[in-house]
């Protein structure tokens, strides 16, 4: 109902997107239909995610067994909602193309080739099409999945499927479109998870589902986390799109304030719901209030996507703003790389949260009477620090505009950060501080077929090779360089493939101890060979990669693009080999210690048995 109301209000009072773009009024089918399709797709996505949360987290089955009875019903419901998401996303893609080309939807449907070409050329429409494709996979998986691990995998897939639509929302003409695009993605994920969870929990209670107190407590924890994410992402967006003078003097500013107030109210209700359960009827009343506030806030968010922010009114983007989202100084010095920080909305908080969470886990181990090696803590914190520097310092700011700095960032994310994090053994620490049931579920996920496939040495090597030889030599890097989603996609790919590559070499939380000694050495030399081959190929190139883009950037201190590219090749080679030296030194040290302790030389010492969980005091039933 909220989606219908917002669509009607936008059709009646909001200016036509076609008129704003100088193409004339496109009529109510497009003006009201696009937000209606968008809202329907988001609602369906929320319901899909909510049901998958119930199957994977709120009422899970056994770690190595099937889903629970409630989880099975949730999977069947998720299939239906994913199909609705598919249909709505396709409609949103069609109407997005129509409003940006001034071609009526009927004409586009009659000419499929034109529709496909226009959708591929316009990023928001392409994002909706990718979302529709992922929804199809989720629907198929939900119809066939029976195990708890499959439910977890579908939940991850459903969350990933939201990101293409959100990352393509901000246009290149928008100032700070890099920050806005990332913040919108976080905001959408937080809102959809929270709304879907509240709706599905209410349905679970209404039909007399099992263990309502446990379900409500878990929903409350998720709502608290989502409210923090929403507040952070909303403030990040408002900081670059909403001048302080327009907070209460513009429709956009009033909608932002209204959304914030509604979210704070919903968070307050969720906190009260988690702390006190007074029967199903009382919980349902509080859930209804929470859902009502979230639905209205979601409607305001849909409306915000159809209004121009006051900070963008009459704004003429500069060349650099159009290409990368922000301006850069006309010089590059060591001080610029160290002090010219531009906060990465995604990786910045991830790095800080990972460091804080690790320290809290170490404190918990110490509180239980255990110990944790200081070297692991130092390695993990160093990895978090390098991740923060690589994405939010001057390295992260200059990387999209300068190839040599991009290669420095690439190698830091793909080699040094993974090696340091793996030397911190975060998964092993997580197993130490988690209860017995939690450990069983984590080990079950680590031993899942998909997990084993991803960390297989050959698969990991192929993935790393793809980030080098399929990204740059094929021209794909040049084709996607101007799109912001490509930058965050590359960062995720570099970090993810690096973790997969070094995990069999340095990881300890692996069944059987990981690769034997010979396999670890082979992996290290294979990595060195990949980096050397790529650097040699890059040095041999007679022309710069992505030359049209970097020529358009036209940084005054980069007079020779080919020389900058060769500089990047040398830096990539050096930075790529440094982590392998650290890995070799770590392995040699571990093997020497194993020889002294008469342990097998091919197997790293296994983690000690965790400290037993404290006994749980039973409470008599009332």
Q: Any overview of this molecule?
A:
The model is unreliable at 599-622 (pLDDT under 50). Helix 4 crosses helix 10 (177-206). The protein has 28 helices and no strands. Helix content is 74%, strand content 0%. The protein has helices at residues 2-13, 17-20, 28-31, 33-58, 69-101, 105-110, 112-121, 123-144, 148-167, 177-206, 212-241, 251-275, 279-304, 319-324, 334-339, 347-367, 374-392, 394-398, 403-424, 426-433, 436-446, 449-454, 457-470, 476-480, 484-506, 517-540, 547-553, 561-596. The chain is mainly α. It folds into three domains: 1-168; 178-195 and 207-309; 342-596, no CATH class.
Helix-strand blueprint:
Elements (H helix, E strand, L loop, with lengths): L1 H12 L3 H4 L7 H4 L1 H26 L10 H33 L3 H6 L1 H10 L1 H22 L3 H20 L9 H30 L5 H30 L9 H25 L3 H26 L14 H6 L9 H6 L7 H21 L6 H19 L1 H5 L4 H22 L1 H8 L2 H11 L2 H6 L2 H14 L5 H5 L3 H23 L10 H24 L6 H7 L7 H36 L26
Helix pairs in contact: 1-4, 1-13, 4-5, 4-9, 4-10, 5-8, 7-8, 8-9, 9-10, 10-11, 10-13, 11-12, 12-13, 16-17, 16-20, 17-19, 19-25, 19-28, 23-25, 23-26, 25-26, 26-28
């Amino acid at each position: 109902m909220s989606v219908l109301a917002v669509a009607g209000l936008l059709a009646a009072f909001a200016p036509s997107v076609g008129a704003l773009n100088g193409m004339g009024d496109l009529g109510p089918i497009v003006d009201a239909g696009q937000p209606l399709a968008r809202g329907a797709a988001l609602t369906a996505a929320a319901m899909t995610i909510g049901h998958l949360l119930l199957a994977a987290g709120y009422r899970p089955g056994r770690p190595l067994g099937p889903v629970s009875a409630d989880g099975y019903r949730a999977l069947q419901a998720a299939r239906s909602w994913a199909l609705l998401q598919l249909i709505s996303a396709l409609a949103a893609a069609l109407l997005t193309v129509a409003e940006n080309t001034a071609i009526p939807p009927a004409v586009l449907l009659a000419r499929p080739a034109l529709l496909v070409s226009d959708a591929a050329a316009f990023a928001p429409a392409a994002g909706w099409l990718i979302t529709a494709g992922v929804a199809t996979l989720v629907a198929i998986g939900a119809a066939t999945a029976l195990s708890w691990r499959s439910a977890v995998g579908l939940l991850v897939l459903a969350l990933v499927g939201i990101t293409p639509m959100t990352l393509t929302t901000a246009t290149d003409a928008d100032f700070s479109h890099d920050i806005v695009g990332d913040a919108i993605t976080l905001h959408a994920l937080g809102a959809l998870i929270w709304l879907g969870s509240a709706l599905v929990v209410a349905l679970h209670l209404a039909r007399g589902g099992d263990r309502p107190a446990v379900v409500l407590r878990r929903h409350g924890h998720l709502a608290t986390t989502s409210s923090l994410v929403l507040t952070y992402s909303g403030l990040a967006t408002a900081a670059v799109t909403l001048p302080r003078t327009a907070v209460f003097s513009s429709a956009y500013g009033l909608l932002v304030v209204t959304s914030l107030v509604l979210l704070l109210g919903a968070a307050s209700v969720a906190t009260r719901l988690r702390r006190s359960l007074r029967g199903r009827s009382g919980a349902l009343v509080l859930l209804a209030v929470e859902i009502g506030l979230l639905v209205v806030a979601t409607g305001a968010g849909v409306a915000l996507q159809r209004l121009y922010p006051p900070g963008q009114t009459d704004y003429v983007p500069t060349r650099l703003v159009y290409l990368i989202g922000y301006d850069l100084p006309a010089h590059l010095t060591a001080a610029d790389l160290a002090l010219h920080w531009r906060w990465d909305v995604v990786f910045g908080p991830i790095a800080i949260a990972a460091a804080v969470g690790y320290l809290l886990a170490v404190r918990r181990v110490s509180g239980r009477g255990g110990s944790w090696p200081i070297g692991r803590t130092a390695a993990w914190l160093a990895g978090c620090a390098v991740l923060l520097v690589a994405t939010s310092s001057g390295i992260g700011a200059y990387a999209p505009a300068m190839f040599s700095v991009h290669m420095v960032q690439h190698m830091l994310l793909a080699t040094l950060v993974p090696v340091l994090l793996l030397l911190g053994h975060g998964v092993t620490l997580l197993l130490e501080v988690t209860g017995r049931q939690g450990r069983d579920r984590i080990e079950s996920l680590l031993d899942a077929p998909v997990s084993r496939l991803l960390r297989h040495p050959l698969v990991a090597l192929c993935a790393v090779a793809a980030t080098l030889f399929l990204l740059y030599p094929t021209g794909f890097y040049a084709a996607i360089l101007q799109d912001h989603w490509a930058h965050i996609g590359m960062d995720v790919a570099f970090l993810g493939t690096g973790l997969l590559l070094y995990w069999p070499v340095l990881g300890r939380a692996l069944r059987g101890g990981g690769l034997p000694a010979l396999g670890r050495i082979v992996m290290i030399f294979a990595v060195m060979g990949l980096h050397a081959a790529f650097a040699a190929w890059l040095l041999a190139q007679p022309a710069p990669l992505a030359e049209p883009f970097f020529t358009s950037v036209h940084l005054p201190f980069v007079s020779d693009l080919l020389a900058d590219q060769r500089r990047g090749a040398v830096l990539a080679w050096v930075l790529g080999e440094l982590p392998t030296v650290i890995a070799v030194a770590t392995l040699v040290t571990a093997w020497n210690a194993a020889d002294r302790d008469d342990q097998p030389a091919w197997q790293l010492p296994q983690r000690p048995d965790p400290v037993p969980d404290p006994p749980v005091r039973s409470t008599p039933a009332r």
